[in-house]
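#lab-general

N.A. 3:47 PM
ok so I finally got the sequence cleaned up, no stray characters, all 164 residues accounted for. can someone with queue access submit it? mine expired

B.Y. 3:52 PM
send it over

N.A. 3:53 PM
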Amino acid sequence: MRSLLSALLIAFTILLLSGCATLPGPGPGPSASKSDLIVTKFETTGPATVNAQNSVVVPIRVVVKNQGPVVTYIFRTAIEYTGPWGTNIVPFTVPAQSDLSYPWTPLSSGGEMEYEGKVTFHPSLHNVTLSLVAIVDHCGGTPCRVDENNGGNNRSAPISVSLP
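B.Y. 4:20 PM
back already:
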């Protein structure tokens, strides 16, 4: 039993030294040199319209800021909606972005990025009011890309949108 405890202590020490594990506690440390992404603006830029496929299209603008001291790795920004049938992610298309559902961008320390694009709702979503939230560094079931000082501040305030 003693050799097992010694082996576990050695393994944990190696993890701590490699940065793969951390001890909880306040105070300065590595977290002071991380990015911190926030949504500074989230708004519609025009009325909701119905396209030829009977989908509802809403033009939106999202402004993201890196208030941390380091450049971020590329991250994605997603739009989440909550309506009568629960909460889901809606495709957010931004011109000049290669991903048709999420814009991906790196961001310098103190830098801001404005995404102006559109969200497109399924044809079944008509005549409803939805609550929309922009989420920066959205993980979508995969590990988040940006190691942040505060990953809890990545969501915008909600906005209400009425779909025709």
